[in-house]
């Protein structure tokens, strides 16, 4: 696949000021996590011109080792998975550019994206794969705590590995109770630790009682020693846990899509139809940024659906012009 240079290094604020001599990209992908990289592989293998722009903060980079990622029976770290997905996409000819898209506009039939450094791209379709950013607990050595699995961020992902641990969920009280009840599948010893003052609803208080989940006072500090997390609570009691799941909310990276009027849910996550298109024609969304379950397998499924839908909407690219395409199958790029 031929790669496409950005439209211009321009500081102009008008999308129509971007040079139009080159045809627009078939698709600009914003974000190179599992979703964006998988979409890039699909589009490259459909002989489409796709560029991925990435700010380099994939949520997957935090994963010490995932054990539920299909095809990795012995687990895979987030960085290893990202490296493999990147090698696969670039191996088929997709281009990945470092940058942060700050503005997205329409110029007639095409989208114009502008990065923070002024770089611009024109594209017929745009795929938003920008993910979410977790709100993290304030504690010394947070990265080390995640690497050692004493802090875990996703019960669906890795509660199996925390089976029979002493587990705490650290969150506003109703959220803490519902997550703690979910975690009771994995351990008899699960408590809810308040991250802020508040009383549970009657229904949640009953749920906690039924599931034998204790609800503890507000934490005043959280530390870890490499093997355990230690909470100090506002009543001065001290509690140790093998694993803590903080559930403190997240920041959906949907700003650029919202500039075009893309619809979001109450968490600012994008709404998409069954082909992953937002309410804006030509603007697709995949992965964690879309409302729903935040998982790698969901992100790559979204990517396959969206990339195929985009390919099918683009003008046909029948294989017949040897000048424009590699002459023989043996000349096609592959990893
Ligand atoms: C500790 C931890 C453990 C996890 N374990 C698992 C697990 O075991 N199994 C599992 O299935 N899932 C797991 N997850 C969830 C998984 O990481 C996410 O579901 C997955 O990374 C989502 O992929 P994505 O491509 O949608 O978003 P991301 O991977 O977050 O990638 C989004 C990319 O877009 C970039 N970006 C954002 N805005 C812009 C912009 N304006 N311009 C350019 N680039 C931009 C970001 O910098 C980032 O690189 C875990 C998450 C965490 C935090």
TrEMBL record:
InterPro entries reported in the protein's UniProt record: FAD/NAD-bd_sf (IPR036188), FAD/NAD-binding_dom (IPR023753), Ferredoxin-NADP_redctase_2 (IPR050097)
Domain FAD/NAD(P)-binding, residue spans: 26-303
Residue numbers spanned by region Disordered: 316-335
Gene Ontology terms for molecular function: oxidoreductase activity
Pfam family, one: Pyr_redox_2
Keyword list, A-Z: Flavoprotein, Oxidoreductase
Keyword Oxidoreductase: yes
Keyword Oxidoreductase carried by entry: yes
Domain of life: Bacteria
Matching PANTHER family: THIOREDOXIN REDUCTASE 1-RELATED-RELATED
The protein, known as: NAD(P)/FAD-dependent oxidoreductase
Higher taxonomy: Bacteria, Pseudomonadati, Pseudomonadota, Gammaproteobacteria, Lysobacterales
